C-alpha cells in the first residue's frame, strides 16, 4: 500500500500541487455540471490552479449564466499513474476506506467477497484525494465506487461483483488472473 501512496503523492497533478481553492473550484464545477452545464466551448477555456474552466457568460435554457463549465480531472500524469497502479497487482480496488476499515457498505461488500475467496488484493482509499476520485470516474467511465480492476482491466462496481460472485463468473476471472 505504501507504494501506491508514494505514486500518488509524487504525481503533482493529483495531490500536492492543488490548493484548497482549486479543490473548492473543482467541487463547485462538479455541482454546475450536474445542473446541466456540460457544453464546452474550447475557445473559451482558461486555466486556474491547473484546472480548466470556461469563463464568461453563456446561454443555458434561455438565460445568461456565468459559470465554470468544463474541465478534466483526468490529467495525463494521473492517467499514467493509474495505468501503473491498476497493473501493479492482480486485483486492485478503488474504494471508500481500506480493506481493514471500509467506509461504505458497497466497499465493505466487495472486500468481504474478495476475502471469502482468499484473493490477495490492494485497496486505494479514494476519500483521501478528491482529484483522484474524480479522475477515476473518467478513467473507468464508471460513476460510482468501489471500482474493481482485475489483471489491469476494469471489472466493475459492487453490483457487478456481487452478480459475478453469485454466478461463479468472478471466481473464474480471478483464477485466470492469478494464473497469468
Automatic annotation (TrEMBL):
Gene3D superfamilies: Glutaredoxin
Recorded GO MF terms: 2 iron, 2 sulfur cluster binding; metal ion binding
All copies of domain Glutaredoxin, residue ranges: 91-154
Pfam family, one: Glutaredoxin
InterPro entries, per database record: Glutaredoxin, GRX_PICOT-like, Monothiol_GRX-rel, Thioredoxin-like_sf
Keywords: 2Fe-2S, Iron, Iron-sulfur, Metal-binding, Redox-active center
Similarity-based family: Belongs to the glutaredoxin family. CGFS subfamily.
Identification of the protein by name: Glutaredoxin domain-containing protein
Organism from which the protein derives: Erythranthe guttata (Yellow monkey flower)
